[in-house]
Every structure is written in C-alpha cells, then in structure tokens.
Amino acid sequence: MSETTVYLQENQPDGVPPLPLTGERTLPDVPEENYWYRRHLVVYEWIAERVAGKRVVDLACGEGYGSAVLAEVAASVVGVDANPEAHEHARLRYTGGNISFARELIETFQAEADAVTFLQTIEHVQDPDAILEHCKSLVAGSADPVIYITTPNLLTLAPEGAEKSENPWHIKEYRAAEFRALCEAHFGQVELLGLFHARKLKLHEFAIDHLFWDQIHKGLRISKPFYDRFTPAIAASDFALTADRDLDGALDFLAICRP
Question: What is the pairing mode between strands 99-102 and 115-119?
C-alpha cells in the first residue's frame, strides 16, 4: 500500500500553525503548490489595484493571503471562512489595524461593504444563485458597489468532453457562457476577463503543445528534477488577465459585477 504524501506549509511565523495541503484550497509556502498559489494570487493583486480606500469583504478567504494583499490598499478587509483551522491560521498570521477575520458561513455573514471578493469558490457551492444574491446584499449600501468572482474554466480544467474535473470539492464547473449567464441573472453590469499563461508558462505551454516536451522529459527521466526547480520559480507575472482572447481557452474567469 502506497503512502499519501502530506504537504505542510513551510517556514511559518512563530505561533502560526502550518496548514496541510488538502486540495480544497490553495496555500502559499508549499513549493509543490506554487503554480496554483500564483495563479490565484495574480487575481488578488489585480483586484487590489482597484479597491484602494474601499471596505472589502473577502468571502471564503481560506488561508488569508488574499485578504492580506487587499488590506495593503483597502480601508478595511474582513476575511470570512467557516473552516476553524484556516480561520485560526489567518487571524494569527495576518494582522493589522485594517484586517480582521470572521469564522462564519459565507451564506450568513453580514457586514457593510463597498467590494466583495468571492474567488475560486462558486464551483464549490450548492446554491450559487443564493450566494450571488447574498454578495449583492453586502454592497447594497455602497455608493460604488462591485463584486469580483472567479471560477476555473471547465474546458481547460476537465478532460475533453467531461462535464466536471476529478476535483472532489467541486460541485459545478462552468464554461464562459454559462458563467456569464449566471452572473448576468443577478447583476446589471457584468464584465468577464480570462486568465491565461504568460512569459515562461506560455513558453512551457508551447513546448508541451508543439515540441513534445512532456514526452521528452519523461523519456530522459528528468521530470522531477525539472519541475522541482520550475514550479517554485513561477511568479504571478507568469499569468495575464485579459478580455482580448478567446475565453474558451482561459484557465479561469474573472467576473466584475455591479448591481
């Protein structure tokens, strides 16, 4: 019987319990997870450029790294997550006068906000319509309300022809048109962007698609040494958000929604 490898966060501050990588949420400080962490981080950084001075609620904040990015510029940030281990880790690791964390179900959390972030989570929920209405209610009193929602693209996440990937935490995965229709059913204005590989990840993608790189490194038996170096070196700048490419080929979708 083979043993399952358990990955824990590395180099955590004193008194902050490291979280294990379970597949339910992404984590910083796990070299093997760096691709997914940077893929999520780039969206938080993009949003942070647009929420300066705003009151932000980060629903399903997980480990809390995204809430901390937003708090660098926002007037205030509340990271909301019901998981007790994630909540404890977040509140101990990310501190400051304008950031706090609430251990509560995202469906019932109440606060007044100007912006809500709900990233890489709608694919996990049973009733996405109710969640989107709840997001809208949180910004109802704002003069400039906005909700940011991301989800992975079914077409690039799941095997060709499948209606869902093998991720056991996902309930429903979306194509671009499906995701846009879901958001437009609840918001008066919806802009949809796609996240794509850039820089070295674009080169890596080209090598796999056209130069048979996946077969070459397996044949040379260098897969592990190569990816042990390549994966930790991935940066947020190796991804790009744009509306100028075919969204069916995007990795993830970002919906910018206004009531």
Answer: unpaired
Instruction: Please report which residue ranges of 185-246 form alpha helices under DSSP H.
Output: 199-210, 213-219, 223-230
Give Cβ neighbours of residue 256 (< 8 Å, ≥ 6 apart).
Answer: 146, 147, 148, 190, 191, 192, 193
Of 90, 89, 142, 146, residue with least CA distance to 112: 142
One-letter amino acid for residue 52 of the chain: A
| Segment holding 58, helix H or strand E | strand 55-59
What residues pair up with 254 in beta bridges, in sequence order?
Answer: 150, 193
Can you tell me the distance from the alpha carbon of 35 to that of 243, in angstroms, rounded to the nearest whole number?
A: 22
Angle between helices 176-184 and 128-138 (to 10 degrees): 50
DSSP sequence for 13-69: PTT-PPPB--SSS--SS-GGGHHHHHHHHHHHHHHHTT-TT-EEEEET-TTSHHHHH
The number of beta carbons lying within 10 Å of the beta carbon of residue 108 is 9
Please state, for a pLDDT cut of 90, what percent of the chain lies above it.
86
User: In this predicted structure, what is the pLDDT of residue 1?
Assistant: 37
Q: Is 149 exposed, middle or buried (0-12, 13-18, 19+ CB in 10 A)?
A: buried
End-to-end CA, the chain: 53
Domains and CATH numbers, the chain: 31-196+246-258 (3.40.50.150)
Per-residue DSSP letter, 11: S
Residue 93 identity: R
Residue 198 has which token pair? Answer: 């850039």
Q: Are 63 and 89 in contact (CB under 8 A)?
A: yes
- The predicted-structure confidence for 219-251, as pLDDT tens digits, reads as follows 656 677 778 898 999 999 999 999 999 999 999
Give the chain's radius of gyration (CA, Å): 19
pLDDT of residue 3: 59
